[in-house]
Automatic annotation (TrEMBL):
Keywords: Membrane, Transmembrane, Transmembrane helix. The lineage of its organism: Eukaryota, Sar, Stramenopiles, Ochrophyta, Bolidophyceae. The chain crosses the membrane at residues 28-49. This is Uncharacterized protein.
């Protein structure tokens, strides 16, 4: 962020071409090159620090709604599928609402009987009517 601000300020100085108040253009260009290199290094370090499975999400054009719907349909484990209720209904109700409702109606009796550890009272309140 700091490098971006430095880069923007130096580019403004070069663009406005102030003769008296700024150092020579060569110095400013060097600062800009260093700031750009710093930005590239920080972006590269961000990518290197990310978990490999998330890099595709970072560069994907998939929307959060599509991601939520895909997460629900891709996973078969109840605990993982239940995460659909952690996001706003708008992101999934229109596309997979019927599937989610059928899944809850099918699994609810088993959850009541077995009382899974991951299904606490707070999570039960997130299930829409």
């Amino acid at each position: 962020m700091v490098l971006k601000i430095i880069l923007e300020l130096t580019s403004i100085l070069v663009y406005n071409d102030y003769e008296e108040e700024i150092p020579e253009k060569d110095t400013i260009v060097k600062i800009m090159v260093i700031a750009c290199a710093g930005l590239l290094l920080s972006f590269a370090s961000l990518l290197l620090c990310m978990k490999i499975e998330y890099i595709g999400k970072f560069t994907s054009t998939e929307t959060s709604s599509q991601s939520t719907q895909d997460y629900f349909t891709r996973h078969k484990d109840d605990k993982q599928r239940f995460r659909v209720f952690a996001v706003h209904e708008v992101k999934w109700k229109g596309a997979i609402g019927g599937e989610v409702k059928a899944w809850v109606n099918e699994r609810l009796p088993a959850w009541v009987e077995s009382r899974p550890e991951w299904l606490d009272k707070q999570k039960v309140t997130t299930i829409p009517k």
